[in-house]
Every structure is written in structure tokens, then in C-alpha cells.
Amino acid sequence: MEDKNSAACIKIKDLNLFYGSFQALKNVNMEIPECEITAFIGPSGCGKSTLLRCFNRMNDLIDGCKIDGEILVDGQDIYKRGTDINALRKKVGMVFQKPNVFPMSIYDNIAFGPRTHGVRKRRDLDEIVFSSLQKAGIWDEVKNTLNKSALSLSGGQQQRVCIARALAVEPQIILMDEPTSALDPISTGIIEELCEELKKQYTIVIVTHNMQQATRISDKTAFFFLGEMLEMNKTERLFSHPKNQKCENYITGRFG
Questions:
Q1: CATH number at residue 41
Q2: Distance of alpha carbon 91 from alpha carbon 37, whole angstroms
Q3: Per residue in 175-213, pLDDT tens?
Q4: What residue numbers bound the domain in which 90 lies?
Q5: Do 41 and 210 contact (CB within 8 A), yes or no?
């Protein structure tokens, strides 16, 4: 029986990305394994978030963005002509740096995606809302206030609602762009524990400036510098024995 964790969920081949004449990603090649947490680290502006946004084609929304190379998700080239973007974004969910709950009830935040994809029966929506909030570790805190505005929640609670909203459409992959940078240490710890639990079912890719966070929760870490992916390895190995000098300088605090 094949070890599920050994399968590559995302494969990137010779990826280059340009914003107009500026090259933001340079010849990136990597494989992201299934049901693991992969962290992207590196100085600001090195291409981490740009690459993350490639996986659900968020960069399509930026004028003058041009991409060549391949990104395969479960063997399918997601930049191939005719790709169903809505289906891709259902498969690849995203959680942003700052909680971005919708100005509506907690219930409607979670039900929004399933309704968009055609779920109409209240009983089905109730089950999705319950299941998603439970997986995001916040059901017990909000079960009696589902009709209250999600904006009434604390920042950490809002971010878990955003995670629940991403889970509600049953993705395979969850992208997280610095999901705890706006949160206090207690909320950060809760989200990190949640990520450890979620990787049993989902592939997680996280951009973080917090190297301690990368060492705590990620299975593999990739180091980026000026648009290039210079090193990728098991997290423990990369932090204890980096092969690339720039990577060593970054994780020892000599620059960044």
C-alpha cells in the first residue's frame, strides 16, 4: 500500500512569473507532498506569497502578470487553457494574512461557499456549517451565536471562521499566507495546533516570517531569495544543516 504522505500533491516545473518587465519568480522547481505542512520562508519580497497565489490562480487578477512553466495539481496543469477556475478554487482554499470574514452572520460566512456551488437544503447547510466549524476548532465557542455577525468575534476567532469557511467547500489543499501574523500568541498557538490536526486530511502550504512557527509545525520548508527557491528540505534538516549559504545567513539572523 502506498504511503499517502509520499505522493506529490503539487508539482512545479520551470516556473517563471513576471509582473510587466519585473521577474518575480525565477525557474522554480519543487514538489509539495500530500497531507503534510510545507512552509515557505525568506525575506520580504522574495516571491513566497506570489508563488502561493499561483496555486489557485489568484495572480490572474493582477494586470500584467505573465506566467510560463507548469503547475500540476493532482497531475492536472492548472494553467492549461480551459481550466475551470471555480473548480480549482474549490479544490485549493486560501486563508489570508488578516482575517477577512464577510459582514454577515457566522452561519452565512460558512454557508457562502457551499451555496455558491449549489447546496440549497437547510439540513445539508447545517451539517456543513457544524462540520466545518468543528474542524476549525471553534464550534463550541460559537454554536449559540451562529446568527451573530462574524465581525463581533475576536481576531483569532475570525481567523478560525475563515479557516472553517475554506473547509466548507471540501478542498484538498489549504493555502495560508501568514495566517497568524496579525494575531496574539495564544491565538497563534491555537491556529498552529489546528494546522497539525488538519494535515491529517488536507495538504497545507503556509507562508511565514516566523521561523519558530516553521520549525514547530511544518514537515518541509522551502527557502526563497529574490524570486528563486534556493533550498528545500525536511524542516528539521534545513534548519539544522542548511546547504545554501544565503539560507544559513537568513535562519541565523544575519540578514532578512
A1: 3.40.50.300
A2: 17
A3: 999 999 989 999 999 999 999 999 999 999 999 999 999
A4: 4-98+172-251
A5: no
